[in-house]
Write a structure and sequence with these properties.
The chain is of the alpha+beta class and 398 residues long. It is globular, with a radius of gyration of 21 Å. The chain has helices spanning 16-22, 43-52, 72-79, 127-133, 158-164, 210-220, 231-241, 284-293; strands at 27-31, 34-39, 54-58, 63-68, 91-98, 104-114, 117-122, 140-143, 149-154, 178-183, 186-191, 200-205, 226-228, 297-304, 314-316, 327-335, 340-348, 357-366, 369-380. The protein folds into two domains: 1-295, Probable tRNA modification gtpase trme, domain 1 (Gyrase A, domain 2); 296-380, Aminomethyltransferase beta-barrel domains (Elongation Factor Tu (Ef-tu), domain 3, Beta Barrel).
């Protein structure tokens, strides 16, 4: 197994030279050792690129592991809660993996690249844990984050841009599918995946060809409103899509200090990812017991009255805000495209059923003065933003 590299200071993505040319606000953060832009010029403009044209986000810092060997499938099936035997070559699976107590360590995507060859992508680094889990399996786990440059190409005109770039046959690619192309003598993998809840793709290529890919992409997208974006715009889109984020909707179980601070897949609304028909997987016994006895927490999607985002807000079961709250929001935003005040949150069971009315305590500041508002909220059971084009095959030309 290849050792995970340890770095001093910040790495620069293979796309950094192109992104830095567009930067006008100098707002960056560290993403697993890489410099990653919060925004490049205006996060609102960048957000509307996702919903109205094509947005390009640098995915290179995402943690990537290559998993190969005769036992690769058995290893992954033991690792994650869903049944990986159903994920054929050329398909991508969203998955979660748990500790022995059935608490989520992380979520991510697993790409079945070719027969017996997989790539696991996640936010957090898990090399030591993956090594320990591989004991007894004939499998090789390789850390390949620096070996793969990646871009998210998202938005209604994303297919049109990639089609103009010469990626013939992309119209037949279904959601969560992947395919391969030749790009200047190098293999370019394209997957129909993303973190925006919109029509979109992710591009994966050798770092040596990263700048050439960027240039070809932006040349093809010149008339389609293509824009590079930062993390803030992506964050707003993922909340609209109802997607979970580590350290927001849940804490990785191996990072928590206090009991009761982690969450199970059942508590995160991910029961559909837990296949109890599998003979064994990490956390199965604990999850089966939780299934029988009921969960402590419940993830909720909230449609909140008013237009003041409910950041870090308590949730109550009545407007009087009695001393005991029933939960709290984890992510919140005013959605420009939905024209809704939305939030994700966690509440104690049995609260949080779709259609339930709850109250959110919102504090906001205007001209140095803090204001308190008790806003009515409705629990909804669907994503706030799910346009038909997201699942259309072939995608319509825009």
């Amino acid at each position: 197994m290849k050792n995970q590299p340890v770095h001093q200071g910040r790495l620069k993505s293979p796309f950094h030279s192109r992104i830095a040319q567009l930067d006008t606000v100098n707002e960056w953060h560290q993403w697993k050792g890489y410099s990653s832009a919060d925004s490049l010029y205006c996060e609102d403009t960048e957000y509307f690129a996702i919903r109205n044209s094509t947005a390009v986000f640098d995915l290179t810092p995402m943690t990537k592991y290559r998993i190969t060997g005769p036992d690769a499938l058995d290893y992954l099936n033991r690792l994650v809660t869903r049944d990986m035997t159903k994920i054929r070559p050329g398909r991508v699976a969203y998955a979660v993996w748990c500790d022995d107590q059935g608490q989520v360590i992380d979520d991510g995507t697993i790409f079945h690249l070719r027969e017996g060859e997989y790539r696991l992508c996640s936010q957090e680094r898990h090399f030591a844990w993956l090594q320990a889990a591989a004991i007894g399996f004939d499998v090789t786990v390789t850390h390949e984050t620096e070996d793969i440059a990646a871009l998210a190409v998202q938005g209604p005109t994303s297919f049109s841009v990639l089609n103009k770039m010469g990626l013939a046959g992309l119209d037949e690619l279904k959601p969560f599918g992947l395919t391969h192309f030749d790009f200047q003598g190098t293999e370019l993998m394209v997957s129909r995946t993303g973190f925006t809840g919109d029509l979109g793709y992710e591009l994966w290529i050798d770092p040596d060809k990263a700048e050439a890919l960027w240039d070809a992409l932006f040349e093809a997208g010149e008339l389609f409103g293509i824009r590079a974006i930062g993390t803030h715009a992506l964050e707003m889109a993922r909340i609209e899509a109802g997607f979970l984020a580590a350290y927001m909707e849940f804490l990785p179980a191996d990072e928590t200090v206090r009991t009761g601070r982690s969450r199970s897949p059942l508590e995160l609304g991910l029961e559909w990812l837990v296949d109890f028909k599998k003979p064994n997987f990490n956390g199965r016994r604990a999850l089966a017991e939780e299934k029988r006895n009921g969960s402590t927490w419940q993830l909720v999607k909230l449609d909140i009255e008013g237009n003041k985002p409910a950041h870090n807000s308590y949730i109550f079961d009545n407007a009087r805000a009695s001393r005991d709250n029933i939960g709290f929001t984890t992510s919140a935003a005013w959605s420009p495209v939905c024209k809704q005040n939305i939030a994700l949150g966690t509440v104690r069971a049995p609260h949080g059923k779709p259609g339930d009315t709850v109250w959110v305590e919102i504090y906001y500041q205007r001209e140095m003065h803090w204001n308190r508002n008790m806003a009515r909220a409705t629990v909804v059971d669907k994503a706030f933003w799910f346009p038909p084009r997201r699942g259309a095959t072939p995608p319509g030309p825009y």
